[in-house]
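Supplementary Text 2. Reproducibility record for the structural model of the 287-residue chain.

All settings were left at their defaults, and a single model was retained for analysis rather than an ensemble. We include the record here because the model underlies the residue-level annotations in Supplementary Table 4.
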Amino acid sequence: FESFEKGKVHIFYQHYLPKKKLNKKIYHIVFQHGVIEHQFRHIVLFNYLMEKLNGQIVISAMDLAGHGKSGGHRAYISEFDNFSKDWLKFLNICHERFYENEEHEVETIVISHSLGGLVVLNTLTNQEYELPFNISKLVFSNPCIAPSIELPGAIKRAVTKFPMAASKLRLPLIYGAYDLTHDSERAIAFIKDPLISKAVTVKVGIEILKACDKLVGHSYFFQFKSFFILSGDDKIVDNSKADIFISGMDKSLVKVKKYPKMYHDILNETCRIEVFDEIINYIKKNK
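Retained model, structure tokens:
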């Protein structure tokens, strides 16, 4: 479908369906990936969920504008709300596909990682956006409530003074694949993946920081059941800010699981099977 980004940018999405006939009651998992990556980076998670919940689950995922198989300038967004508007448009496509058929009873679970978590939070805390269906539970994997990386002041001033020239300026990543996961195989896969950007634009960095600032204080009004999975050695996002956000939420709505020695890409870490099982248990839990 066409993105809200200017320039006829297309958004790539995919539905993952089970091999066996779907049950009457199904879980619809909506997954949203993190910055510079794409949905296929998490195919191990998808396959595990499909195996353990075969016949009970469908998964929908899209690549953000400027990421993966979607169009647009790599790792760039003109304004953060375009991520949210695209995600909301994607939810409406999912609604037509899975929710207008009375054959199934559908429960929606949103799983998001890193930047994907910020997109979800930005969308769900914006009162202007209307969801096409109810969301039962949210799973956040190291959500980008605050990045650990700060843009230099000189870069910010350059964007303010020369917005058009500087906005698409590309900055090399200051972290590597081995800062994301202890799993050498998954780190090498990251390095070799042609769909993963090896740099970010100044503009996307600024838009992420602005979106994070908007979240301050929203946790008191956030009324979605949420499971936060946080890494103790995360070098990409500041999970102490996630702790602050969580502390402001209604305690009856929140579950938290921390992995003290793990890195940012917890869904591709050495402990990922344990993480996947935690997610499945949370999905299946009635309360």
